[in-house]
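Example record for the data management plan.
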Amino acid sequence: MLSEARNTEIFMQQLYSEHAPMLLSWSMRIVKDRQAAQDVVQETMVRAWRSSDRLSPVEGSVKGWLMRVAHNVAVDWVRARRARPVAGAEIDEDSSAIVDDAASGVASAVAVRQVLTQLSPLHRAVIFQVYYMDQTVPEAARRLGVPLGTVKSRLFYALRELRSTMSSCR
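Corresponding structural encoding:
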């Protein structure tokens, strides 16, 4: 067991030294932020470590696998940044705009919660995992114990129902 752990450690060191610069460059193109790109590389290597027993040239291109994982992690990072406002965003001089914005945000949150209760428990569970627990679709599928395609279709129909109900509330 100790030699197996040592082999994994050596494999990961080689993997990192061989591919990290290329992954950093690739990630920078997507996230446009060096610190975030370094985080993407780190997360990619963590996932490689978790899957180290399956990573070998015999199973397929290790570089291709790493690039696909880095791409997915980077895209998830970009999507998360778009979905969340930047902390410390500039504040307008007009404080009434801030109060109005906060009030509409609270009203929207209340409306979304009410609409969520109208979804089926299966659709609500998928929405919760993906949007509230910030899980990727594959992670949500694992947590819910259902196939990836099932999570995708439930998410599609849940979001469609949310949009439809929210637009009729306005």
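Summary line stored alongside the record: The CA atoms of residues 83 and 131 lie 10 Å apart.
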